[in-house]
Specification:
heterodimer, A: 124 residues, alpha/beta, Rossmann fold, 5 helices, 5 strands, B: 290 residues, alpha+beta, Heat Shock Protein 90, 2 domains, 5-stranded mixed sheet, elongated
C-alpha cells in the first residue's frame, strides 16, 4: 500500500491494454505499476511490493504468465494473482490453474465492473 | 530367386533370396517365398497407411495450432479496442451522437470478439485434442449450471424457461470443456433464437443413452436449410435475415465433439414454430464406474 491506496502490478506486452488498466485503476483510487514483460514484471514486483498482480498469459513466450506466477508463488503464497487470457478459459493449454496458484482468470477484453468487483473482493 | 511383395494389386517391395549352397531352388521354395511375400506385402501396405495417418494427424494438429495463434493475434487488437471504447463510454457529459456511436462500436467489437472465439473453439475441436479433462460427468448437474446461466437471459427476454429431469444422475464420460461448449450452444441458441414463448429442457435416460432435449418456440429452421445447418459458417436463411448476431460456427463444433465421443445430435424443426435439438451421449455405466 502507498498513501492508503492499494498498489496493483499490471504486466502485459500490449501497450494499449496497459494504458487501459492504468486509466481504470487510477480512476478508482488504486495505484497501478506497469511492466511490459514477465522479466520486467518480476523486477517491478520486487521493487514495489504490490498488493495484487494482473499478468497476461501469453507475452514474449506462450507460458510467460504461468512461469511468472510460479516464481512469485515460490515465496509469496498470499498475494492475489489474476491472469489475463485472450484464448478462452478452458481452451488455454490445459493448465491446472489451482496448482499454479492463480486467484482467477480474466478474459480479454476485461469487463470494467468485473475487474473492480474482483479487486474489491480480493483486497478487503 | 525373387518375388514381388504385393497387396491389392500394388507392388509394395521385392524379396530376393540368394542361395549360397550347391543346391538349386525348387518349386516348393518358390511357393514358400510367395506366401512370405504376400504376408510382407500385406504388412507393408498397412504400415504405409499408419504412416500416412500419423502424418495427416500431425498436419491437422499443426494447422489447429496455427489457427490458435492466428486467432490470438486477431483477438488482441479487438480486446484492446473494446477496453478503450468502454473507457470512452464511461466518460460523462458526452454529446448524444458520441454516446450512440461509442455504444455501436462496442457492440460491433463484441460481435467480432464472439466470432473469433467461435473460430478458436472450432479449430480446437477439430484438432482432436480435448478442450478440457476427459472425465466422468453428471449431465444433470452440468445441464443445471448452464440452465441457470441461460435463465437470466431468458427472463430478460420475457421467455418462460423450464427444466425437467427424470433421473438424479446421468453419468457420461466426456471432455469437460467440450460438454460445456455443447450445452452452452444448444441451450444458448434456443434462448437466442426465440423471441416469445418458451424454452424447455428435458433430461432423461433412454436405454444406454443420456438424452438432453432442448425445445423452443423460436424462429425455427427452414426445411431446406436443415441438412446444411451443421456445416461450418452456415447459418439458416431466416437467422441471417433476423438481425440476430451469429457466425454459423457453433453447431459445427458441437456436432463434431458429440460424435467424437460416440454420441449423436438430432434436430427437428419447423420454420416459425420452433426447434428441438436432442443430444444423445453414451451413458457411462455403473459397471465401468465401479
Amino acid at each position: 500500500m502507498q498513501d492508503g491506496k492499494y498498489v496493483v502490478l499490471c504486466i502485459d506486452d500490449d501497450a494499449d491494454i496497459r494504458e487501459c488498466l492504468q486509466i481504470i485503476l487510477e480512476e478508482n483510487d488504486y495505484i497501478p505499476v506497469l511492466a511490459e514483460s514477465a522479466e520486467e514484471g518480476y523486477r517491478v514486483y520486487e521493487e514495489t511490493k504490490p498488493d495484487l498482480i494482473i499478468v497476461d498469459m501469453m507475452m514474449e513466450l506462450a507460458d510467460a504468465g504461468t512461469d511468472f506466477t510460479k516464481k512469485v508463488r515460490e515465496h509469496n503464497k498470499n498475494i492475489p494473482i489474476y491472469m489475463l487470457s485472450s484464448v478462452g478459459a478452458g481452451l488455454s493449454m490445459n493448465i491446472d490453474y489451482n496448482e499454479i496458484g492463480l486467484t482467477g482468470i480474466l478474459q480479454k477484453p476485461i469487463d470494467n465492473d468485473l475487474l473492480l468487483s474482483l479487486l474489491t473482493a480480493s483486497l478487503k | 530367386m525373387c518375388t514381388p511383395a504385393m497387396f491389392k494389386g500394388k507392388i509394395m517391395g521385392v524379396i530376393q533370396v540368394l542361395n549360397g549352397k550347391d543346391r538349386s531352388f525348387q518349386e516348393s521354395d518358390l511357393n514358400v517365398l510367395k506366401n512370405i511375400s504376400h504376408m510382407v506385402g500385406y504388412a507393408l501396405y498397412h504400415a504405409k497407411i499408419y504412416d500416412d495417418l500419423a502424418t495427416m494427424k500431425k498436419l491437422e494438429m499443426e494447422k489447429a495450432r496455427f489457427m490458435q495463434i492466428m486467432v490470438h493475434e486477431l483477438k488482441s487488437p479487438v480486446a484492446a479496442s473494446k477496453m478503450m471504447t468502454d473507457i470512452l463510454k464511461n466518460y460523462k457529459n458526452k454529446p448524444e451522437k458520441m454516446v450512440s456511436l461509442t455504444g455501436r462500436i462496442a457492440d460491433r467489437l463484441d460481435q467480432m470478439s464472439q466470432l473469433i472465439k467461435d473460430i478458436l473453439e472450432l479449430a480446437s475441436v477439430k484438432s482432436g485434442v480435448p478442450l478440457g479433462d476427459v472425465s466422468e460427468l453428471n449431465m444433470v448437474a452440468e445441464t443445471q449450471e448452464h440452465y441457470e446461466v441461460c435463465c437470466d437471459q431468458a427472463k430478460q427476454k420475457g421467455l418462460e424457461m423450464s427444466m425437467e429431469v427424470a433421473e438424479k444422475e446421468l453419468f457420461v464420460r466426456f471432455d469437460s470443456q467440450g460438454l460445456s461448449l455443447v450445452l452452452s450452444n444448444i441451450i444458448g441458441n434456443a434462448v437466442k433464437y426465440t423471441r416469445e414463448g418458451s424454452v424447455k429442457i428435458k433430461l432423461s435416460r433412454q436405454d444406454e443413452w443420456a438424452v438432453i432435449e432442448v425445445s423452443d418456440t423460436g424462429i425455427g429452421i427452414p426445411e431446406a436449410d436443415i441438412p446444411k445447418l451443421f456445416g461450418e459458417f452456415y447459418r439458416a436463411s431466416n437467422a441471417r435475415k433476423s438481425n440476430i448476431p451469429g457466425s454459423g460456427v457453433g453447431l459445427a463444433g458441437v456436432k463434431n465433439i458429440i460424435e467424437r465421443f460416440g454420441g449423436r445430435l438430432e434436430l427437428q424443426s419447423r420454420e416459425n414454430e420452433g426447434s428441438i435439438f436432442s443430444v444423445y451421449l453414451p451413458l457411462y455405466s455403473d459397471t465401468w464406474r465401479s
